[in-house]
């Protein structure tokens, strides 16, 4: 079943059951606490928080999502993309646990001829929050899932909360058993690659208070209205329904891998490392196109930096696969073609998306050609002395003179088996800023003093995409 059909069936199923179909919101969240939308519930947040009265009791959507914290999983696990689509159904004070659970089961297991997805019930495993007897009872007694395929998990995976004070409650997840070729048995509690999580049902049930109770925080009591928020990963379901090994081989991503192969001559399935690179390219180029489509432009802060980092990783992986000329035009073109069916606005915006992506590519190729030799020399020097750590001085030089962001240095060093003295690097960065600050004060030029902001950006580190602030 094609991705577009999975999406259609989702929306039709819930529409037929009284849900209002709400189009995907932009990836740029209308929410100051979020850089990008990571989940389907975000556009409905004001309803869940009770800030705005919802115009409907039930809604459904297929929401574009970006999760930058998953970036290091991409290509390595079978199931994490930086961009994915979350199919959701939502109840605002209407149906609760039993409604959400029975809808989910019906849609997943009813036959494809009847409009469902036709999954075999024996392959579905359920997790519930360890204290949620009610959810377990519904799965066992109402739906009829055998007790041995229902597992209880702790707060980490199976309890949800948002803000203080705010709503919170247990989750229940549906996982699909992909069989022994994906490893040992025992259910999702022991093996999350074999028993892949496909659908999370969140039961917003309690009000969370400011204190710390025995469960990690205070639960003040029941919410005045109980809500449902669910999310199913479209790409994960596509992976199962299309009978492929991982989400990058599903219809909308596989065509991107094939273009990467055409550009590099490296075939998918040839070797582990090159397969990881091909998957990273497919994932990241799709994310880049979707971000640019929603109006993000490459930059050194915030969303712009997310886009920049993702594009640069895609380009670098293409070079590791052997590409020695620009590749972005072809990759953008195929992504727009394959995603355009579900997001026609991409087709109308093709020219602009291409020109933003191409400009970033040419900027990055200049940076790379200047810095790569310097990095290689530093790596060789370090190794010849028997060292395993690139010094903070070298990382600082690469940054300051050659425009290499620290996370690029970290990645390229680690590909050659070295780590980097990040503390040393940050100390030098701080010294440089302090000098600049002192100079600025001496001169009293009247320019805005950005050093406080820079300190914050620097402290929060590379993994949070707050970014480097110096680029060539
Ligand atoms: P996982 O444990 O596999 O990382 P999660 O628990 O973080 O997933 P949820 O926050 O529960 O995911 O999101 C709801 C659904 O969205 C998941 O059940 C999954 O199907 C899908 N999903 C989450 N993260 C990703 C991702 N990075 N790529 C593709 N699909 C995802
Ligand atoms: Mg996750
Ligand atoms: Mg999970
Ligand atoms: Mg989950």
TrEMBL record:
Cofactor-binding details, from the entry: Binds 1 zinc ion per subunit.
Superkingdom per UniProt: Bacteria
Catalytic activity field: tRNA(Ala) + L-alanine + ATP = L-alanyl-tRNA(Ala) + AMP + diphosphate
Single GO term (MF): ATP binding
Keyword hit for Metal-binding: yes
Major subcellular location class: cytoplasm
Cellular component GO terms held in the UniProt record: cytosol
Record-stated family: Belongs to the class-II aminoacyl-tRNA synthetase family.
Function of the molecule: Catalyzes the attachment of alanine to tRNA(Ala) in a two-step reaction: alanine is first activated by ATP to form Ala-AMP and then transferred to the acceptor end of tRNA(Ala). Also edits incorrectly charged Ser-tRNA(Ala) and Gly-tRNA(Ala) via its editing domain.
Protein name according to UniProt: Alanine--tRNA ligase
Biological classification of the source: Bacteria, Bacillati, Actinomycetota, Actinomycetes, Kitasatosporales
Gene: alaS
């Amino acid at each position: 079943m094609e991705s577009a059909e999975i999406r259609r069936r989702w929306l039709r199923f819930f529409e037929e059951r009284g849900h209002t179909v709400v189009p995907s919101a932009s990836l740029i969240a209308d929410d100051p606490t979020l850089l990008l939308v990571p989940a389907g519930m975000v556009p409905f947040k004001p309803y869940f928080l009770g800030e705005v009265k919802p115009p409907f009791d039930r809604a459904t959507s297929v929401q574009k999502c970006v999760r930058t914290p998953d970036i290091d999983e991409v290509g390595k696990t079978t199931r994490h993309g930086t961009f994915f689509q979350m199919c959701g159904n939502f109840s605002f004070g209407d149906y609760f646990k039993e409604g959400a659970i029975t809808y989910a089961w019906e849609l997943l297991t009813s036959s494809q001829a009847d409009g469902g997805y036709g999954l075999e019930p024996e392959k579905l495993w359920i997790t519930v929050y360890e204290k949620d007897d009610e959810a377990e009872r519904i799965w066992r007694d109402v739906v009829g899932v055998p007790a041995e395929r229902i597992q209880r998990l702790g707060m980490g995976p199976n309890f949800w909360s948002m803000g203080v004070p705010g709503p919170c409650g247990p989750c229940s997840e549906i996982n699909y058993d992909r069989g022994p070729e994906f490893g040992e048995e025992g259910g999702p509690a022991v093996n999350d690659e074999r028993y892949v999580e496909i659908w999370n049902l969140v039961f917003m049930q309690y009000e969370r208070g400011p204190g710390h109770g025995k469960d990690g925080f205070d639960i003040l009591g029941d919410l005045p209205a109980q809500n449902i928020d669910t999310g199913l990963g479209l790409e994960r379901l596509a992976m199962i329904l299309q009978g492929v090994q991982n989400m990058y081989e599903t219809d909308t991503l596989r065509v991107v891998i094939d273009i990467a192969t055409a550009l590099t001559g490296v075939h998918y399935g040839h070797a582990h490392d090159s397969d990881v690179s091909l998957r990273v390219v497919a994932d990241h180029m799709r994310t880049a196109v979707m971000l640019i489509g929603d109006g993000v432009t490459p930059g050194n802060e915030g969303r712009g930096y997310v886009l920049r980092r993702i594009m640069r990783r895609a380009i670098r992986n293409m070079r590791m696969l052997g590409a020695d000329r620009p590749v972005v035009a072809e990759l953008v073109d195929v992504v727009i073609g394959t995603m355009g069916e579900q997001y026609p606005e991409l087709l109308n915006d093709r020219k602009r998306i291409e020109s933003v992506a191409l400009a970033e590519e040419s900027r990055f190729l200049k940076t790379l050609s200047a810095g790569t030799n310097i990095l290689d020399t530093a790596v060789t020097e370090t190794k010849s002395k028997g060292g395993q750590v690139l010094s903070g001085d070298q990382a600082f030089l690469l940054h300051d003179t050659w425009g290499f962001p620290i996370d690029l240095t970290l990645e390229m060093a680690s590909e050659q088996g070295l780590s980097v003295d990040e503390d040393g690097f940050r100390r030098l960065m701080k010294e440089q800023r302090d000098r600049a600050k002192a100079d600025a004060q001496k001169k009293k030029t009247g320019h805005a003093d950005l050093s406080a902001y820079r300190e914050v950006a620097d402290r929060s580190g590379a993994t949070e995409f707050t970014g480097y602030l110096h680029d060539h």
